[in-house]
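Memo to structure team: turn this sequence into C-alpha cells by end of day. - J.P.
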Amino acid sequence: MPFYRQYGSKSLKAIEHLVLFIIAIATIVAIGQEIVHIISVRMVMLADLLLLFIYLEVLAMVASYFESGKLPVRMPLYIAIVALARYLILDMKSMDDWRIAAISLSTLILAATVIVIRWGQLKMPYPKNQEYDN
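Reply from structure team:
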C-alpha cells in the first residue's frame, strides 16, 4: 500500500491531468474547425451556434474539473440538453411524431433532473467535513 500511495496516486493524477489537457486541446481544435466552417460558408446557422455552445460547455467542464478536482453532475446534463435540442432542430423534418415526442420528453426529464439536483444542493448540502468532499 505505501508504494501505491507514493507513486500510484501521483501517476493516476498525472494521467488524469494529461487526458483533461488533451480533451481541452481537442475541444479548442473543434471550435476552430467550426469557426472556419462558418467563415467558409459565410453563414451562421442555429445548429452552428448550438454546437459552439456544446463545445463551450465542455471547456467549462474541463476548467471546473481542473480547478476543483470535482465534476459537477449538472454540466454533462446541460451538454446533453443542448445536444438533444440541436438534434431536434436539425432533424425534426425527417423524424416521426414518436421520435420527436421521445426526444422532447428526454429533454424535459434532463431539465427536471437539473432542477432536482440544484434543489438538493441548496436544501440538503453535504457537510463540509465529509471525506469525499475534500
